[in-house]
Design brief:
Length: 571
């Protein structure tokens, strides 16, 4: 699955895969709140003319909008706080400045979702399960481009799906913007309440989805995973309140009409539709229970006060817990890496370029990419490092897996500033507890990952690959600046803007180990059946690992804490 952010209205209109419309402060949160309040009949309209005409025929509908209507036309504000007090028995009609316009613009999409921070992690969970590409649409494209919260939210969602950042940090950033301050001071009377609901991360754990009704000026909105209204499925649904009529329905759909006796063919068709409806209802029930379980697990994370910036990606944990069947009290362990492989649209197999040194981390990444169904090619780079022992490991493992290996030589003389290249320098030998707290060590190779990613991007563009997989780690590492989430986020953005594959299809720069400790990496490697005995991590080279360099110490720590013997180390 590729995740792209819409840049123009025209892009939304021609998109045929999944679409997520994000309108943080108003539309998305208001719609989520209406559905969360239990409303079974929520319609959205593109403009006020069609909304007014429909409401005049169906006066029982409450209207939620911030737009101007004719004098005397009764409506409520497009406000999450107002929606929170809604009566579940009264049907709702929503038409807004930008959010509903964005939904109507995306009618070519196979399915449309709506979200913001209010359902951030529930939405992310679902998006991760999709096999087709996703277009994130900030409603500011259809309204005010100064609505920076929409653009920041889609960026945060994309980053989170690719393993970087979280919603909480972005919310903190938004609260420091002029836009947020102005909304509180100059917005509606409910501005503070609206903002509190909109920025309560995953406070409304459901996903609005939409279905357009042929010949009608509206789209029907209902929670994903729940049963669609009866007039969409062809089943005979009765409204919660008999006196409330359904919108523009043929009477034959809501009550049996005085028709002649059914023919055998008609009876067979009706029976088939009924069975189909039963199966659909069962499937939707299962989906609903799964989403509720995921939401409960996420709420457990938040209640436990997990330090999100330094924690492993929450959604990976949730997927693992759901598959392993553990209780909410056992929210620990490494991400589950057995979830379904996502394939690109059109059945085209996904290809990945793996940066592969032959070490523990990069070998785990290669096995991870293969387990995800990627067709892999690997790149190993020599840059004058002290030894070629790791290159031998890379060649052996690639041959064992049948993976094509590209060996690149970068004989840049200035790289001798690093003790990994200049043998006249001593390798650092710090106590384990000081490694992470020390300054950038002499083993840092200037711009190494920047060069490696550029080479990988060139190969990716040449063969039409979809992703680059690398093994940086920001938990147990030596403090290299090019192994941080912020660096890889910036690199991913540059690659998406500076390559043919990036600008035409969108590519992923995946760092599956970024938030894992070395212990978790060892556990993940064991789960993927990585041949640890073939990997090489030592900076010094030689016949066996030195046991004194940063890399040896961190590796030993990982195996010891994982309770697994390192077969690459002789007794």
């Amino acid at each position: 699955m590729n995740v792209l952010i819409a840049k123009t209205k025209e892009e939304c209109k021609i998109w045929k895969d999944y679409v997520v419309v994000v309108d943080v402060l108003r539309s998305a949160t208001t719609v989520c709140q209406l559905l969360h309040a239990g409303k079974k009949d929520v319609l959205i309209f593109e403009n006020t003319d069609t909304a007014v005409a429909f409401r005049n025929e169906h006066p029982q509908y409450e209207v939620y909008s911030e737009l101007q209507f004719p004098d005397g036309f009764e409506h409520r504000d497009n406000s999450p706080a107002v929606a929170a007090k809604a009566d579940a028995k009264i049907p709702a009609l929503v038409v807004t400045t930008a959010g509903t316009k964005a939904v109507f613009a995306a009618q070519q999409a196979c399915q449309i979702f709506m979200g913001g921070f209010c359902n951030f992690y529930t939405l992310a969970t679902h998006l991760k399960s999709l096999s087709r590409d996703v277009l994130l649409v900030p409603s500011g494209l259809f309204g005010d481009p100064e609505d920076v919260e929409d653009f920041m939210c889609v960026s945060a969602l994309k980053d989170f799906l690719q393993g970087f950042g979280n919603a909480e940090n972005t919310v903190s950033d938004i609260r420091n913007t002029l836009r947020y301050v102005e909304f509180l001071k100059q917005g509606p009377k409910t501005a503070k309440e609206d903002a509190a609901i909109a920025f309560r991360v995953n406070g409304l754990p459901l996903i609005p989805t939409f279905q357009f009704v042929e010949g009608q000026p509206y789209a029907v909105c209902f929670p994903y995973g729940q049963k669609a209204p009866g007039y969409l499925t062809g089943e005979e649904d009765t409204p919660a309140e008999p006196e409330v009529s359904m919108p523009s329905l043929d009477e034959a759909q809501v009550a049996p009409a005085a028709e002649p006796q059914e023919t055998p063919a008609q009876e067979k068709t009706r029976s088939s539709q009924k069975i189909t409806g039963l199966f659909r209802g069962l499937l939707n029930t299962v989906r609903k229970e799964e989403e509720e379980l995921k939401a409960d697990l996420l709420n457990t994370f938040h209640k436990k006060g997990a330090p999100m910036p330094s924690a492993k990606p929450v959604m990976d944990h949730v997927d693992a817990l759901l598959q392993e069947g553990v209780s909410q009290a056992d929210v620990t362990g490494v991400p589950d890496e057995t979830q379904r492989v996502r394939q690109p649209a059109g059945g085209r197999k996904k290809k990945a370029i793996v940066l592969f040194s032959g070490g523990l981390d990069s070998t785990t990444c290669l096995y991870w990419a293969l387990s995800k169904g990627y067709e892999c090619e690997a790149i190993t780079v020599t840059y004058g490092q002290r030894h070629d022992r790791e290159v031998i490991s890379a060649e052996f493992i690639a041959k064992k897996l049948g993976v094509k290996l590209h060996k690149i030589d970068l004989p840049f003389p200035w790289l001798k500033s690093s003790s990994l290249v200049d043998k006249s320098q001593s390798l650092p030998d710090l106590p384990l507890e000081q490694i992470e707290n020390s300054s950038i060590p002499s083993t840092y190779v200037p711009g190494r990952n920047l060069m490696f990613l550029s080479i990988a991007a060139s190969l990716m563009d040449s063969i039409g690959a979809n992703a680059i997989v690398a093994g940086p780690n920001a938990v147990d590492f030596s403090g290299y600046p090019d192994c941080t989430p912020s660096f890889f986020k910036a690199a991913a953005e540059a690659i998406n803007r500076g390559t043919r594959m990036g600008v035409t299809e969108g590519v992923e720069v995946l760092a599956p180990l970024m938030r894992l400790s070395k212990t978790d990496i060892v556990r993940l490697g064991a789960k993927l059946k990585v041949p640890f005995e073939l990997t090489w991590s030592c900076y010094a080279g030689g016949q066996k690992p030195c046991g004194h360099c940063d890399s040896c110490k961190l590796r030993a720590k990982g195996f010891a804490e994982a309770g697994i013997k390192d077969p690459a180390v002789e007794d």
